[in-house]
Amino acid sequence: MKQESLYLTEEEKNLLVDLLFEQNYAVEILACQLSDIETGLRTTDIMQYQKITALYARLKGAGY
To answer: Running DSSP on this structure, what letter comes out for residue 63?
Structure first.
């Protein structure tokens, strides 16, 4: 079931991102997204896929 759009303030967005990094979830989310795309569970265009893979590589390279 798709949830309604939720508006987050910039402060809330920053807090959420900080927590995702603190808990090491940021790279896990990217890994799951890539796996879903590569196994056909999710569809996306090539540009989005390339952005996700580049971000994943940057985070892994930075030790996350």
So the answer is: T
Query: CB neighbours (10 Å) of residue 16?
Result: 11
pTM for the complete prediction? 0.80
Q: How far does CA 32 lie from the centroid of its chain?
A: 8
At residue 27, what is the residue type? V
The total of other beta-carbon atoms located within 10 Å of residue 34's CB is 17
**Dihedral angle at the C-alpha atoms of 32, 52, 1, 15, nearest 10 degrees?**
90
pLDDT by residue (tens digit) across 15-26?
Answer: 999 999 999 899
Both tokens of 49, joined, read 């896929």
Radius of gyration for the chain, computed over Cα atoms and rounded to the nearest angstrom: 13
